Amino acid sequence: MEESLICQWSVIRSLLSILQWWMFNVTVIIVNKWIFQKLDFKFPLSVSCVHFICSAIGAYMVIHVLKMKPLITVDPEDRWRRIFPMSFVFCINIVLGNVSLRYIPVSFMQTIKSFTPATTVVLQWLVWRKYFEWRIWCSLIPIVGGILLTSVTELSFNAFGFCAALFGCLATSTKTILAESLLHGYKFDSINTVYYMAPFATMILALPALLLEGNGIIDWLSTHPSPWSALIIIFSSGVLAFCLNFSIFYVIHSTTAVTFNVAGNLKVAVAVLVSWLIFRNPISYLNAVGCGITLVGCTFYGYVRQVLSQQSPAVPGTPRTPKTPRSKMELLPLVNDKLDDKV
Fold first, then answer.
1. Rounded Cα–Cα distance for residues 109 and 162 (Å)
2. Smallest Cα–Cα separation from 116: which of 166, 177, 160?
3. How far is Cα of residue 91 from the mean position of the Cα atoms in its chain?
4. Is there a contact between 250 and 21 (Cβ–Cβ < 8 Å)?
5. Rounded to whole angstroms, how far apart are CA atoms 45 and 102?
């Protein structure tokens, strides 16, 4: 009886963790799109900077004030030699995500972001010469096919937004790969990751945001009918972005790798549906089919990696397929989603 209650509580806890993760993730995406489209705040660099600042403050509060998480100590030299390069790629990743969100619908952007597994495998193969079994390559076929079908049939296609989302996938893959080498020896959770990277990202992005968007923001403040209420929404998106990182920490420790993979792809479907209900961007039948094929492909890819990670090499010395990242570094969408990829 007691074991049954424990099992039931474990299932309920996993379900609640997934639901709160979905809620924060979808809310961040929708609020960011609302900022760009409804508030006419066309400044993705500044929005990203607000997210970094709020995340840095939130991580500091959780670690030093509320003491909900212990601080992982990093050597000062490693902060510049390891953390700073990661923060630079992290910054580019988040900015490109917000830039793409300004120009293309949420549904299209989220589908393109699902291309990340393919770019990760190709980069590891081309640059790092990593070995992958044929099953990994085959699992990428529906992802690539779904992305192509979605792109060709997208009714609100924008070349600049498409390129920003695609390069965002490359940045996410680069961050994932660099994390394996640069952060080796440090077992970061999502809160400590944000604690160290968000201040660096703010430092990197603050000056470009000021120079490129400062005058535009001043004009926006002088012409917008309700600037103060709009600013509250913009800074609220930063708070929600930090809450998303905290929710990721919770869901990672409450679910298995397989559940996390499936829930992550279902989360994309939820985000697409909610964004369509709110913004009513036109979606053709073939476009929806392409999105569905991509998500099924991502789920299948995660399943193949999970299966291969549990198998031992048949011949001693044979290189193994890289394991499904149970360390979770490459599953952490810092500040934005799926993240990875936030928005």
1. 8
2. 166
3. 12
4. yes
5. 11
Q: Produce one character per residue of 11-34: b if its CB has 16 or more CB atoms within 10 Å, e if not.
A: eeebeebbebbbbbbbbbbbbbbb
Predicted confidence at residue 16, as pLDDT, reads 87
Distance CA 112, CA 164 (A): 10
Distance between CA atoms of residues 144 and 161, nearest Å: 18
User: In the prediction, which pLDDT does 185 show?
Assistant: 75
Q: Which residues of the chain have pLDDT under 70?
A: 1-7, 258, 312-343
Please give the single-letter amino acid code of residue 154.
E
Q: Which tokens is 247 given? A: 């929710």
Q: Please, what is the angle between helix 2-37 and helix 257-279, to 10°? A: 40
**CA distances from residue 77 to 35, 83, 177, 205 in whole angstroms, order as listed:** 38, 9, 21, 22
CA 169 to CA 116: how far, in whole Å? 5
> For residue 180, what are its two tokens?
């394996």
Distance CA 40, CA 219 (A): 12
pLDDT score at 260: 76
pLDDT at site 207: 95
Closest residue by Cα to residue 294 from 86, 153, 103 = 153
Amino acid at 224: H
Measured CA to CA, the distance from residue 157 to residue 27 in angstroms comes to 23
